[in-house]
User: Fold this.
Amino acid sequence: MKIGILGAGNIGGNLGRRWVAGGHEVLFGVRDAHNAKVQALLDEIGSDACAANVVDAFDYGEVVLLALPWQAVQETLEQAGDLLKGKILIDATNRLGAVAPGSLPSAAEDIAKWVPEARVVKAFNSLGAEHLLNTQFGSQQADTFICGDDEAAKAVVKQLAEDIGFGVIDAGSLSNAHLLESLAKLWITLSRRVGREIAFKLLQR
Ligand SMILES: NC(=O)c1ccc[n+]([C@@H]2O[C@H](COP(=O)([O-])OP(=O)(O)OC[C@H]3O[C@@H](n4cnc5c(N)ncnc54)[C@H](OP(=O)(O)O)[C@@H]3O)[C@@H](O)[C@H]2O)c1
Assistant:
């Protein structure tokens, strides 16, 4: 699958690494494709990854991952034009800090409002980015919690998450995204108390 990744930092870089290792192709949409950090990432990943501008990433991806600081999300999505029409848009962002007046209850719902033609799925936001490289905690695999309104889109994201070793818990519709975003805040709070070697898992019987 061709995946456009907006942002080549902790989240974008690590998911790009894993997805290419799993047989996918990735184009990172970045501000400066010649930046030394981006070039080092590409050198490490190999020829199934490349970098270009953000519009190219919207165009390239059958699936597009948003892995940008929240402050950059709206202005970046404004550049998408029709390119996200019908595409799966994975939102891995967290909207930390003060929330702008008029915002919806979650970042993911704001994103869906800004690009209504995209099929938004929230995922990969509720644990530290380093764990995307290794989702195994002893004998347990970390869970990623996903939500969205398009069942077919969620099935694709579930597979992309399982491809890199996650258990996947479907938390329902996009209106539940605020719960996943609160889970991320809980992860951050706990990581400051007990360290970052933590992840959430839903126990079921
Ligand atoms: N880090 C975590 O553990 C973690 C966990 C879960 C969720 N998240 C969320 O995931 C998102 C990304 O976090 P991250 O840790 O991956 O961030 P990061 O390491 O700082 O990477 C951000 C990426 O976005 C790019 N970027 C910044 N401003 C941009 C703009 N205006 N236009 C285009 N690209 C821009 C940066 O490029 P430059 O190099 O050009 O600045 C960089 O490639 C955030 O919303 C964060 O809350 C992070």
Summary: The chain is about 35% helix and 20% strand.
